[in-house]
Amino acid sequence: MHQENMVIVGCGHAGARAAQALRTNGWHGGITLVDGEGRTPYERPPLSKAVLKGESEAEDAPLFPADFLAKNDIHVLKGVAAAAIDRPTRQLRLSDGGSIAYHRLLLATGAEPRNLIVPGADLPGSHTLRSADDAARIFPYLRPGAEIVIVGGGLIGLEAAASATVRGCKVTVVEAGPRPMMRAVPAELSHEVRLFHESKDVRFVLGRQVSELEGDGRVRCVRLDDGTVLPCTAVVISVGVSPRTALAEAAGLEIDNGIAVDRFLRTSDPFIYAAGDACAFEQVSGPRMRLECWKNAEDQGTLAGRNMLGSDEAYVPLPWMWSDQFDRTMQIAGQAGGSAEDVRRRCPDGTLLIYHLDKDQMVLGISGFGSIREVSRGVRMGQLLMERGIRPGRKALADPEFDLRSLAKAAVA
Q: In which element (H, E) is residue 149 found?
């Protein structure tokens, strides 16, 4: 390969994996990672779990070994942000006034947390949770007896609720919808998770919205739309994220609920790619899709790196996500929504697995909540059934005594 520069905007998971893939797949030219956060690439999932619980710090979960970037001659511009893309000259303008020429450019700009648009939302003690700096700001508030209000009952909100409870806080989760995790998990699994949180003394207020945050120099209480007032020491706002598209939009790239890319993760400019939370990718059929999860960033970043080198590999998502809450885990693989039938398997230790079937009894997806051992095993079996096109039948799926591995083994015998 000739000595030109591959430039990646974003030091998150997708951007870091793309840099790794470029070097692993034979690129000998320059690789520059541009990110305004000022940290070397790190794993974000521990932020709402181990970091908030005080079990570790963000630096304890780097994406690469300490010497990886230097050994592979990957240059990281710390604390310098991308300001503009000059597409005709293929230059990335930087916030410090400099610029970088690119052979190919990857936009892995990620997403930013939405804030509340209510009076008092900017009071000290009110925080969103997305970065290591966010977690560091929240951590001191999580002390025994503190009253913590979590606004938003999604995955991050519930992980933060679990971590705060473990730290000895009194936690209330306010969710505008009728149940937690409305978009992420089936209703039955949502109910299971809620009951478990309530057994740990987490309080839920459902079907209510925040109308105001009140305080005298810092947040003291949360006022809801029905007049309810929730006293608080701090507020964690977890009401979703928005893709960071401003850089792409200003450059005239197509936007469609994210930076629009084709199946090969190319934008409307053939020299520019996008990956991770910021991009909306073409599916084989149906509208563009944007996925916000660790596996999507992992897979898209690696694929984008290869495609920037000239490979034409289509991105075919294999959805999988997880969430650790207290001493239990939740995992979802495949498509949990739109099934024709759901079959439940209750394991002896109480773990609930739900297999999602189409009209022909093919497994479309699997959801689970319970012990790490049983959920991981059950979800992996569901993935094998999907990969091999096996129809186990309702009785086999529902019976915790039936070993589904026998079907997978028979399929390859």
A: strand 147-151
Element (H, E) at 250: helix 246-250
Portion of the chain with pLDDT greater than 90, in percent: 84
d(CA 1, CA 7): 15
* pLDDT exceeds 80 at position 409: no
Enclosing H/E stretch for 24? helix 13-24
Q: Could you give the dihedral angle defined by the CA atoms of residues 259, 262, 268 and 269, in that order, rounded to the nearest 10 degrees?
A: 100
- Please report, for residues 45, 239, 279, 299, 373, the alpha-carbon distance to residue 131 in angstroms, rounded to integers and kept in the order given: 10, 15, 19, 21, 29
In the DSSP assignment, the letter for residue 62 is B
* Those residues with Cβ within 8 angstroms of residue 358's Cβ, 6 or more apart along the chain or in another chain: 339, 340, 364
User: What pLDDT score was predicted for residue 243?
Assistant: 97
The answer to whether the beta carbons of residues 201 and 232 sit under 8 Å apart is no
Per-residue burial over 356-394, b if 16 or more Cβ lie within 10 Å, else e, is: bbeeebebbbbbbbbbeebbebbbbbbbbbbeeebebee
pLDDT confidence bin for 317, thresholds 50/70/90: confident
Q: Is pLDDT above 50 for 2?
A: no
What residues are paired with 345 via a beta bridge?
353
Q: Which residues pair with 34 in a beta bridge?
A: 9, 77
Side chain identity at 98, as an amino acid letter? G
Q: Please say whether the beta carbons of 32 and 6 come within 8 A.
A: yes
Taking the C-alpha atoms of residue 198 and residue 370, their distance in angstroms, rounded to an integer, is 15
Q: Which of 216, 200, 210, 246 is nearest to 36 (CA)?
A: 246
Cα(41)–Cα(110) distance, integer angstroms: 13
The answer to whether residue 1 scores a pLDDT higher than 50 is no
- pTM listed for this prediction: 0.92
Distance from C-alpha of 349 to C-alpha of 15, rounded to nearest angstrom: 40
Q: Which of 401, 404, 383, 384 is nearest to 393 (CA)?
A: 404
Tell me how far apart the alpha carbons of residues 142 and 160 are, in angstroms, rounded to a whole number. 10
Tokens of 274: 């996008």
Q: How confident is the model at residue 3 (pLDDT cuts 50, 70, 90)?
A: low
Cβ(372)–Cβ(345) under 8 Å? no
394 SS3 class: helix
C-alpha 276/C-alpha 300 separation (Å) is 6
